[in-house]
UniProtKB/TrEMBL annotation:
Keywords: Membrane, Transmembrane, Transmembrane helix. The lineage of its organism: Bacteria, Bacillati, Actinomycetota, Actinomycetes, Micrococcales. The chain crosses the membrane at residues 31-50, 71-90, 96-117, 129-152, 158-175, 212-235, 247-269, 278-302, 369-387. This is MFS transporter. It comes from Cryobacterium frigoriphilum. GO terms for molecular function: transmembrane transporter activity.
Length: 391
């Protein structure tokens, strides 16, 4: 599963972090921040819809080819086709359409990949598995952005890492041990069931609700820095379109070093001590400190330090938080659906942040945006403290 996450995020994340901003800046430099917000907002909205729906449909997929495998392979193929559309686009509308298709494909694949954890990982190992997934996800940032900065063409900056990532995912999907369902689901799949793919009852499952909210808030906090770092370096620290990709690569490298410094340790200790909440809480606080450091950064050196701290916090957070969420899933029969709902908590902020960001930037600049993210992260700390069923 971590191998699959490396490939998936090599394909998906470089456009979000670097390539998309540069592509939009080529098309409409005068309104680049607002246009990027539209592109990422629409794409994240599609991700929010597709992820839980694909997860639920994969729960119901029958055949000897497996439950998750068809969605994973078809998803990355559609996603790469979308990257080709984006790379050749000459208008913001074309980029919006391409990114919507990319999010549709890659999130269908992501739903299948994430569901394999609940399908196969025993509870006492989930912290370590989640840690490995966290390292893979963040390590893919470095690999993806490293590939991006090797090229000056925005088309190659999308297509080359996309091809590498998709090849990794497909290779893994062909040999993975997938669940096979040959029986016909006893329940129907009508309008009620369709709408139920996107929701859960927080009254019946309060711990799941608070865990969902925690991930939503921390993802939103981190998204302020990852989405707008390229523009921040250009506007506030004097980087140019020619040099910014390299500096984002270095920032991502520091972020990943932070992730590696905490993720496996946090996951292992969480399993060893049988505790989740305290690790999630401390990790969220560390991430808030990192965001605040980036917001006030007067130089690249301070940005890199902030990225190191942010990585340490978010790496530990995602590792243990995924284990915590898996421990409080409402049902063992709908892993794909429930984890798809969790992925809404990761996709929705990426839709809301670009909508809110242009107004915040106009009032307080990019530092104000990052500080706003830090405040949101503090609310995430409060949310995880309300989980009762997990230590």
């Amino acid at each position: 599963m971590p191998i699959a996450m490396v490939g998936l995020f090599i394909a998906l994340l470089p456009p979000v972090i670097v390539s998309m901003a540069l592509k939009i800046n080529e098309i409409t430099p005068e309104t680049s921040a607002a246009s990027l917000g539209i592109v990422l907002g629409v794409g994240a909205l599609l991700a929010m819809i597709v992820n839980p729906l694909a997860g639920r449909l994969s729960d119901r997929t029958r055949g000897r080819f497996g439950m998750r495998r068809p969605w994973i392979i078809a998803g990355v193929l559609v996603g790469y086709l979308a990257l080709i559309v984006i790379s050749s686009a000459t208008t913001v509308t074309g980029v919006v359409a391409g990114w919507a298709l990319a999010q549709t494909g890659f999130n269908a694949a992501l739903a299948g990949v994430i569901a394999t954890m609940a399908d196969t990982a025993r509870p006492k190992y989930r912290g370590r598995v989640a840690a490995a997934v966290g390292v893979a996800q963040n390590g893919s940032l470095v690999l993806g952005v490293f590939i991006v900065q090797l090229f000056s063409s925005t088309s190659l900056q999308m297509l080359v890492p996309g091809a590498v990532g998709c090849a990794i995912v497909i290779g893994w999907a062909l040999i993975m041990k997938d669940r096979v369902r040959l029986d016909k689901p006893v329940d129907s799949f009508g309008v009620k069931e369709f709408l139920g793919s996107f929701a859960f009852n927080p009254r019946s499952n309060p711990d799941f609700g608070w865990a969902w909210l925690t991930r939503f808030l921390l993802t939103g906090a981190a998204a302020t820095a990852t989405t707008y770092l390229t523009f921040f370096l250009i506007a506030n620290l004097g980087e140019t379109a020619e040099t910014v990709a390299t500096q984002v690569f270095y920032a991502t490298l520091f972020y990943t070093v932070g992730v590696l410094s905490t993720t496996f340790v946090a996951g292992w200790l969480s399993d060893r001590l049988g505790k989740r909440k305290i690790f999630v809480l401390v990790a969220a606080l560390v991430a808030v400190v990192g965001l605040s450091t980036i917001a006030f950064a007067p130089s690249l050196a301070v940005v890199f330090a902030g990225e190191l701290i942010l990585g340490a916090g978010m790496g530990a957070f995602y590792a243990v938080d995924l284990a915590l969420i898996t421990d409080v899933l409402p049902s063992s029969e709908d892993n794909g659906k429930d984890l798809g709902v969790v992925n809404i908590a990761q996709a929705l902020p990426q839709s809301l942040v670009p909508v809110a960001a242009p107004g915040v930037i106009a009032l307080a600049g990019y530092p104000g945006l990052f500080l706003g993210g830090a405040v949101v992260g503090l609310f995430g700390v409060l949310a995880v403290s309300r989980v009762k069923g997990v230590k």
